[in-house]
Amino acid sequence: MSLHQPGITLENKIFGIFMELSVVGDDLDPIRDACGELAGRLSSLKTRFWNSDIEMVIAFGPDLWRKLSDNPDSAPELKPCRELGYGMAKATQCDIFIHILSDRHDLNFTLAKDVVEVFGDAVTVDDETHGFRWIEARDLSGFVDGTENPKGQANRTDVAVINEGVDAGGSYVLAQRWEHHLEQFEHFDLKAQENVFGRTKERDIEMDDEEKPTTAHTARVVIEEDGEELEILRQSLPYGKASGTKGLYFLAYSAELTRIEKMFAMMFGETDGEFDAMLSYTHAVTGSYLYAPSLEQLEALAD
Fold this sequence. Notes:
The protein has helices spanning 29-48, 62-68, 105-119, 153-160, 182-186, 190-197, 217-221, 257-267, 295-301, and strands at residues 15-23, 55-60, 96-102, 123-132, 171-180, 224-225, 228-229, 233-234, 237-240, 246-254, 282-284, 288-292. By secondary structure, it is α+β, with helices and mostly antiparallel strands. The chain has one domain. The strands form three sheets. Strands 5, 8, 9, 10, 11 and 12 form a six-stranded antiparallel β-sheet that branches. The longest helix is centred in the first third of the chain and has 20 residues, at 29-48. It is globular. The two termini are 20 Å apart. 41% of the residues are buried. The model has no long low-confidence stretch (mean pLDDT 96).
């Protein structure tokens, strides 16, 4: 059985670093070598700081994965990210995505430095975001984020990881950096804010369907098929400066890319013309679809 990269399902880490990279040139040997070298550096960090629980996920965009993989049938759903909502969600497809997470920002930063050093001139770093878990796991809007996220390793693996076939142990990924306009949101009264999310702000209780607006965030992203709710695994974190740009780095893992696509089609009005009310105060400035290979597939790149 192929194993997934452990960072995909790691739970409740306080800090994260998200890196979006583009490959320079056509020579992919440095990319393959770097993946092997980074696995070694991660292992060394975990041995030295044995209780740090640090992990790293490496994922690849569609064009690069097609070139790196020795199996043309791998990741059949993978495609370039597309712009949504007339520019409210940008498509800035990267080639490589790095997700580093643990409860120690110093170790995350050390590993991020290793990423830059090991890839060297073979890549450019298009975006690097340092996230943190805020008070009571709240988004900077003040609302709890990820309330319905799968809990426990078994559930998280079932939702996020492909369980059979050539890609067993792999996962589809959506990576987006969202910028919030909190001054605008904070002008709303409490009830208007709660109507945006479909949940109460203080106690995080979901509104009844009769009370919840059809444009509420929870109404747009909760989709049922054949009596079961479509699920994704979120590994999102707030980021930013108190005096400057701030928002949420949204990161989703899923065993099927179509689940993510369906949720975002609902958010951006592609199904019924109604947009998610959350879009009144936030927009995505980066966006990429990626594939996080199984450990076996990742190790094969360096062979």
